[in-house]
Each structure stands twice: as structure tokens, then as C-alpha cells.
Amino acid sequence: MTTKTRESSGLNATIEPAFKLQNSAADSNTLDSWMPDKVLQKIVAANLGQPIKQITKESLANLTELSLIAPKEIPVVHGKRKYIISPAEYRLRLRLKSLTGLEYATNLVKINLAPDRQLNSDWCHRAVLNSTLADISALQNLHKLTNINLEMCNLHDISALANKPQLVQLNLSYNAITDFSPLKSNKQLIESGSLKLRKQIILAEPIHLTAGTTSYTSGPYQLLDFNGKNMALKIETGKHLNAKYLVKQYYSNWSDHVGQVNGKQTVTWDLSKLQPGDSAAMTVKFHSNNSAQEPIISGWYIIPFRIVSGQPITIHFKDDADNTIACQQKLYGDVNTSSTITIPTFTGYSISAKSADGTTTPISQDSVTTTITAHPQEISLIYTRNKAADITIHYQDETGKPIAPESTISGVFSEQKIIQPQDISGYTPIRYQIDHNGISHHPGSVAIVLNNQPQEITFYYDREKVSNVIVHYQDTAGKKVAPDEILSGFVNDQQTAPALKLSGYTIKLKDFNGSHIDTGLDTTVITLKQKPQELTYIYTKNILSSKNTVKEEKSQKYKHRQKTHINSKIQSIVNKKKDVRQPSAKAITGWQLGLLALGLISLFSVLGLAIIYYNRKSKH
Q1: Are 18 and 238 in contact (CB under 8 A)?
Q2: SS3 of 40, please?
Q3: What is the pLDDT of residues 573-590, one digit of tens each?
Q4: Do residues 494 and 525 touch, judged by C-beta distance below 8 A?
Q5: For the domain bounded by 313-385, which CATH number is listed?
Q6: At 44, is the pLDDT very low, low, confident or very high (cuts 50, 70, 90)?
Q7: Roughly how many angstroms between the first and final C-alpha of the chain, as a whole number?
Q8: What CATH architecture applies to the domain 206-307?
Q9: Structural contact between residues 153 and 196, judged by C-beta atoms closer than 8 angstroms
Q10: Residue 326: which H helix or E strand, with range?
Q11: No. of H helices and E strands in the chain?
């Protein structure tokens, strides 16, 4: 059931606003800071028997029972109860709204905040009159409670009453409770305790239906028993209700057959007998499906309505980009009924214009006047988006070190921005965080809506590791003279690749990424990049000579010089002999033979000396 339940209704109309309670600004150590409801302060003080200013968290631990009217305020005189509080004080206590602060009453056993029936009748002229208490969340951890009476307290949410192992008595009658499943955890209460949960009265916000509406479907009704199951529904015609029933004015009495319960917890109402101006209520009665003769839980769900003669005015709320910024509202009424609408304000927007019937009119006032007609009307209130707070973007490595300048994104309120991680050379995005909340998200684009609060987003990066530099060692013919080497590291790191010293080779030049370089051949400093790189050292082969070869060359040269010298001497002697006068044939022949022998002896002597000299020199 999506109908909004009213927090206050005609049932409480007799409560007089006799006092206006002002909650003063309080710091964290004052009573107002941890027990903000001043009515509760008065009730607690009365039960503790001490002034309000003496209430402390520690003193609440002494509180075992709490009543709307403290026992000492109801003395028994001649066998009858006598109330010593004033009617104004009683009405004031009925304005209790919250029990915040009572969580410190850890020894609380009994609590009774139900309005007093006698005082209701005597001072307010109503037997049943609810207080305005709605928030009982402070009771959630008070596990010593055995008796709870919160009858006629305008309660909607009773989840704080779950898990009360010692609870044996509970009175929640005459409230507006639609879900009783939290009580299932209290086994002792359900099995053998005292339970009063009847006569719940849920009064929804009134609705308006235009003339000519013949039917209306309400629901689905979410009315849950202890087990979380939907309770049975039936149409409440009110024929069996006497005038004492508070819901007598709401029973469904506009025809003999006003509606029918459907199988999905909805009711279809027949409105064909109603005319413009008629008022009524769509009232269903519900009850728990227990085996007892009388249901443990019962109540009424009431939707007041009125048939109007005019057609509704639908009001839209849009920004200057035609985006809807709030749910539409409808105005109902009779023809020619005028209404002044207070223009609502929205954070981040300023009202700028009104659009109706195709005409846009600038406006700056805080209200507009409309008139109901026999035809539907559409009005759009147009708001300008104010400048929003900026979004600051950070780029960091995993250690939190900035790796790029931060950037800022500006815009108008409610504008959505798609933010991409920046491409940073040598880094890969791995995650991001918004507003340093500690929650990391996978890398990728981020959709952020600008608002009136500054926002921050931090992209985190990992450094990229590469192994893409190959170092070759080749001769001038391209033949490999040493194994290749591969350089690894992070992008933008610098690596040093020295040239190898190879026996029998001399480095001639180097080739780096296709460029020949003939300087700085001993080493090369390379900055690692994402793209592959190549470095080639090119060598020439040396022409090598051994020590023995040099000695042999020197010996051959020496022998050649000696031989040339001896031959030269022999030729000189021969030439001299030719100049001598020729003797007789026999004499010449003898002389020649002797001379030849002498020459041969001299030649061998010189050769022997040369060999001896050479051997000695070789040994040295």
C-alpha cells in the first residue's frame, strides 16, 4: 500500500497547542543533546523525583519504571486516585514524540506511556485520545523490559520491540501499526503472555477524485501479522458500528455494495453512485488469522476522499535542461476554485519561469495562483541550475605519489560528468576512489553528478614494465659475434648498455633504432619506451701477427743481405783478375784453380761465421 499515512488526524484534533516547546541549541554534553524531547525530560524528571537539570545518563540507570504520569503524581485519597497535575500539563505530556535518551535506562523493567482514559474523558472529553509519540527506537536494546503499555500512542514502527526475552505483557491497541512481524522473536510473549493489539486505526492522506470517476482500486494493502503474512481484509460498511466507535465517521456507506476485495490485497470501489461534492472514505477492516475466537490483531485502514467537479491541475518541476527535479503534484477542486501555490525551493536551483499553455513567463515571486477549470491543466515551474562545487581529480601511483598534475571539472548543479582516467606514459590505471571513502572501484569511466559539495576522485596507477630493448653484437657482414641481450624495466627508466670487448675485434660503430652512430661507442644510455627498440654494436676483425713470425721475417732479411754482400765481393775479385796479364795456358789453368780454391775456402769461412753470428743472436 503506497498511500501515505497521516501522522496526525482528526482523532487528535482536541489536543490544544497550549505550549510551544523550544529546543535550544545544545552541545554534546548537555541534556538537550542526548535527550532532545523536552516533554520526555519532564516525564523522566517526575519519575526520578528530581529536577530536570539533575538528569544524567548515570541517573537513568536507577530508573526501573517509567509512566506518563508518575505514581507520586497520582496519590490515593479515601480509596480514590487523585491527580495533582494540571490539565495543561497533561495535554503537554500528550505531545511526547521521541524516546531518544531512554536507551541509557538499562535497568528499565516497566514502561507505561499510554494516555489516561479518565483524564481523556474529564479534561479532553474523549475516551480515546492518542499522544503524538512515534519514535520508540530507544527501546531497542533494553532487554529487561517485562511490561510495556503504549496504547493510544500513534505508533507506526514497532521494530524496536523485537528480541525482548523477558517481555510478558504488551498493549499496543489504538495505534497505527501495519506490521506486527517484529514481535515474532518474543516467544514467551506470543505463547503465554498478555497481548492487546486490536483496534489499529490507519488514516491515510485524503485523495480527490474527479467527477465521472466510476471506480477506484486501492492497495495493495501491506498489513502483516506475527509471521509476516498478509492479514484478511473485508469492506467496512459501518452498519454494525455504534456511535461510540471512532471510525464511525469513516465507514463506507455511500451504497449497498461499495467495493470488492481482490485476490492480491487490493479493493476495487464502485463510485458510480457518487456526485461532485460527495465526501466519503474507503474503509477496510483487517484482522489476524489466528485460531482464537477473537483475533489478536484487528484494525481499520481508512482512505478519505472527495468527488470534485473540476479537472486537476498537474504541476511539474523542471530545470533549464528540461530535467524533472521533483515529483509532479496535482491540485484538485471544484470549477472556478482558485488556489495560491507556494513555490517550493530546491537546493542548487533558483526559480526562473512558469510555463503553461505553450507560454513561458519569467517569475521571481515565491507563489503562483491557479484556478481549477473543467479541463485538465499542465503547469511547469522552471528552475535555473546554480553553479555547482567543483570536482577535483588526482592522479597517483600506488604509494600515493602524484604522477600528473591534478585537474578540476566545473559545471552546474545536478549536471552529470563522465570522467575518464588520464593517459599517462608509463602507467596503467588500476582503480579509483571517490571522496577518499576507502571504497575502490575497477578502472574505467566514472559518472559523477555535480552538487553543492566539493567532490574528489583519485585515479591510481601501476607502472608499466617492459622488456623491449634488444642489443645485438655483429661484424660488418651482419654475422653475430656475441649473444643478444634483452633489457627490461619500467617505461621511462634509463638502462645502460655497454659495448662488449671481444678478442680479435674492434668496435667500428653502432646502430640505434636505425640510426648509425660513430661516437660514444663504449656505452649507450637508453630510455625505455612502450615501443620496441634495437641497438646493434658493429665490429671489424683485427689482422694479427705472432712473435715467431716477426723473428723469422727479420732472419730472412738478414740472410738475404749477407748473401748479397758475399756475391758482391766475389764478383769484385773476379773483375780484378781479368785485368791481370794472361800467362801461358798451363800457368793460367793452375793459377785459376788455386784462386778458385782460395775463393771457395774464403766463401765457406764467411758463411760459417755468418751462421754462428745468427745463432748467437737468435739465442739472445
Answers
A1: no
A2: helix
A3: 656 545 544 444 444 556
A4: yes
A5: 3.10.20.320
A6: very high
A7: 123
A8: Sandwich (2.60)
A9: no
A10: strand 324-331
A11: 8, 35
